[in-house]
Structure to design on (212 residues):
């Protein structure tokens, strides 16, 4: 017997789809890959807003790469974490690559490439960074990703891990933190933000907050 679908079934189908979307949206919020950032933060709101302007996250037909630079201990990693936490929800996959300099010196560039792939598409073991490049291009070409490369100190790290904007799906964003502003220019990264040291007033505020 051919059972036709009545208006009630149709309504149930739409209700089910609607509920499914709500559940997926809520659970994606709970599954967020939030990173810990210091509880005592000062003067961070304005840098976060300014880098977010450079990132232009709502614009999905382009890929932007943004560099954050400044002297040691000025708060580049902290700023990158705060931005990551506030925008990661807008992306299909995200990855915060900590200490790129240290990891690539210790375990090779292929280790950083493997971490990137395992966080975004699943476990892939690489033995050579030259194999990693086509793998990243192939796997991430269609994905809207958020990538942070923290503490980069050599151009070859940028070449092997984030090559060029067309490696990534539309709407992707890449943030690089470095002490070396010239590396950003070398990689043709035009959107940059220089993080300055805390003003005396804010340094004092931080000291007081930490003391209590
Ligand atoms: N806005 C802020 N308010 C309070 N503390 C901060 C702020 N930014 C950074 N810090 C603190 O300052 C220290 C250095 O910060 P961070 O590691 O982010 O600097 P960095 O610029 O990434 O350093 P490096 O160049 O060595 O990588 C950390 O202990 C961090 O918690
Ligand atoms: Mg740092």
């Amino acid at each position: 017997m051919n059972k036709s679908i009545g208006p009630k079934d149709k309504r149930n189908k739409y209700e089910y789809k609607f509920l499914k979307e709500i559940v997926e949206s809520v659970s994606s919020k709970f599954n967020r890959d939030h990173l810990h950032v210091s509880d005592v933060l000062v003067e961070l709101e304005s840098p976060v807003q300014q880098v977010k302007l450079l990132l232009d996250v709502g614009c999905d037909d382009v890929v932007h790469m943004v560099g954050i630079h400044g002297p040691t201990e000025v708060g580049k990693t902290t700023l990158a974490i705060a931005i990551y936490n506030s925008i990661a929800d807008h992306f299909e996959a995200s990855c915060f690559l900590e200490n790129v300099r240290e990891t690539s010196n210790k375990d090779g560039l292929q280790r950083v490439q493997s971490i990137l792939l395992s966080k975004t598409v699943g476990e892939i073991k690489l033995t050579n960074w030259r194999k990693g490049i086509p793998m990243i291009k192939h796997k991430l070409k269609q994905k809207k990703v958020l990538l942070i490369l923290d503490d980069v100190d050599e151009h070859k790290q940028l070449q092997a891990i984030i090559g060029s904007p067309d490696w990534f799906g539309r709407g992707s964003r890449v943030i690089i933190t470095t002490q070396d502003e010239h590396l950003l220019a070398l990689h043709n990264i035009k959107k940059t933000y220089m993080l300055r040291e805390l003003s005396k007033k804010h340094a004092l505020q931080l000291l007081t907050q930490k003391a209590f």
